[in-house]
Write a structure and sequence with these properties.
Helix 1 runs antiparallel to helix 2. The chain is built from 3 helices and no strands.
Length: 82
């Protein structure tokens, strides 16, 4: 439980740190997309910390969350440049 909390906090700190490195403009322009991205990053960490005995469903969920993270980031970049 403590490890999971620390991993979630690490993801949060990383997200906030990335915002301080030029990502703030994206947040100002796209708060809903950034909120979705933050939630997906937390979900990714939670899935990585879940036990593996899920009949392949945890792994598939992790794959789909990572795909959603990638697509959300592409959407933010696209909108920021158009």
């Amino acid at each position: 439980m403590k490890r999971q909390y620390l991993n979630l906090m690490g993801t949060f700190v990383l997200s906030v740190g990335l915002l301080g490195c030029g990502g703030l403009n994206a947040v100002e322009r796209q708060p809903a997309m950034q909120k979705a991205l933050d939630a997906l990053l937390v979900a990714e960490t939670a899935l990585m910390n879940a036990s593996h005995d899920k009949g392949g469903h945890r792994a598939e969920a992790l794959r789909l969350v990572r795909k959603a993270i990638k697509q959300t980031r592409k959407g933010i970049r696209y909108d920021n440049h158009h």
